[in-house]
Design a protein that fits this description.
Blueprint lengths: L1 H13 L3 H9 L1 H16 L10 E5 L8 H9 L5 E5 L10 E5 L1 E2 L3 H4 L1 H9 L4 E4 L3 H10 L4 E5 L10 E5 L25 E3 L5 E8 L5 E5 L16 E4 L8 H11 L3 E5 H7 L6 E10 L1 H13 L1
Parallel strand pairs: 1-6, 1-7, 2-5, 2-6, 7-8, 10-11, 10-12, 12-13
Antiparallel strand pairs: 3-4, 3-5, 9-13
Helix pairs in contact: 6-9
Length: 301
């Protein structure tokens, strides 16, 4: 049932049916109220500086946009960056340093996205915290030169540079009629980037087998379609789903697959299962102008 509502919601926001479009129009008064509330919150917020450059990487809509690989690629251009995120889906609370030279907790405490950062950026400090301000102070104490906020556009109380990834959707309304959490508010500066203009994606398959089945728990999983090899079936779970060994073994059994094709975000939750895995290994090539702009901001701050 959970998977059904997850799939229905993504279709409603990004590829709506006639019925879903009608429902969206009926909900417009709530969307206007939501958008007004978000705007008022922005207008009456005062941005605080922390004496360390902060760069937010995110998008305005709900669902996936590629912010994690973009933030990771940008962080590779600095000697001691910090990655700060909420740690959605983790079974811990408060502020937690996930990586400082080494990984100091497990995925249940960190959440899946934080563990992807921790494994992919061995030179970075990775911190999860509901209060990003506390984590920024901690990153500064640990001697970081720059903080990358994962999905921090709405954190108007933090002085920072915003990078906003464009996500195409036929519905430009705010929640609940559309996918937008916030808009590019008047007076708020941001660097708006898009795939195939400011960054370019390539995917390699690690450990391919003859009969792979796609199993993934990412937002808007249809984004993977242009990069997929032939797979015998696709299984989509809700974003941040915690896999169990039993459900994965059942997929292998019922499909007759020779391996599971997974993303890096899924891999961190399945690696302990000791099951045959093939990996969609993503890499990004960034436009040099974007790299230069970020470096100029960091070193001028």
């Amino acid at each position: 049932m959970k998977r059904f509502f997850f799939a229905w919601g993504e279709h409603y926001l990004y590829t709506p049916s006639i019925f879903q479009k009608s429902l969206s129009l009926l909900l417009l008064p709530l969307s206007w109220l939501y958008c007004l509330t978000a705007y008022v919150r922005y207008v009456f917020s005062t941005a605080k500086t922390f004496d360390i450059p902060v760069v937010s990487v995110g998008n305005l809509t709900v669902g996936g946009s590629g912010k994690t690989p973009l933030a990771m690629e940008l962080a590779k251009h600095f000697t001691k960056p910090a990655i700060i995120l909420r740690g959605y889906g983790r079974k811990s609370s408060g502020m937690l340093v996930v990586r400082d030279q080494e990984i100091v907790c497990d995925i249940n405490e960190s959440g899946d996205e934080a563990m992807v950062y921790a494994l992919g950026l061995p030179h970075a400090i990775v911190i999860v915290s509901e209060k990003r301000e506390n984590a920024i102070i901690k990153a500064k104490e640990l001697g970081c030169e720059v903080v990358f906020l994962d999905d921090g556009y709405g954190k108007h109380s933090i002085e920072r540079l915003d990078i906003v990834i464009v996500v195409e959707t036929p519905n430009t309304f705010c929640l609940p009629s559309g996918a937008y959490r916030e808009k590019l508010w008047s007076g708020k500066e941001a660097i708006v980037v898009s795939e195939n203009r400011d960054f370019f994606r390539s995917v390699a398959i690690v450990n391919p087998t003859s009969a792979m089945v796609l199993v993934t728990a990412i937002a808007r999983p249809q984004r993977l379609d242009p990069f997929l090899p032939d797979v015998i079936e696709k299984f989509y779970f809700e974003d941040h789903h915690s896999f169990t060994r039993e459900e994965i073994e059942e997929i292998l059994k019922t499909t007759g697959a020779t391996s599971l094709l997974v993303t890096s975000k899924d891999l961190v939750k399945m690696s302990s299962f000791n099951l045959p895995l093939s990996i969609l290994e993503l890499s990004l090539e960034l436009d040099e102008k974007l790299i230069t702009t970020i470096k100029e901001y960091v070193y001028a701050t």
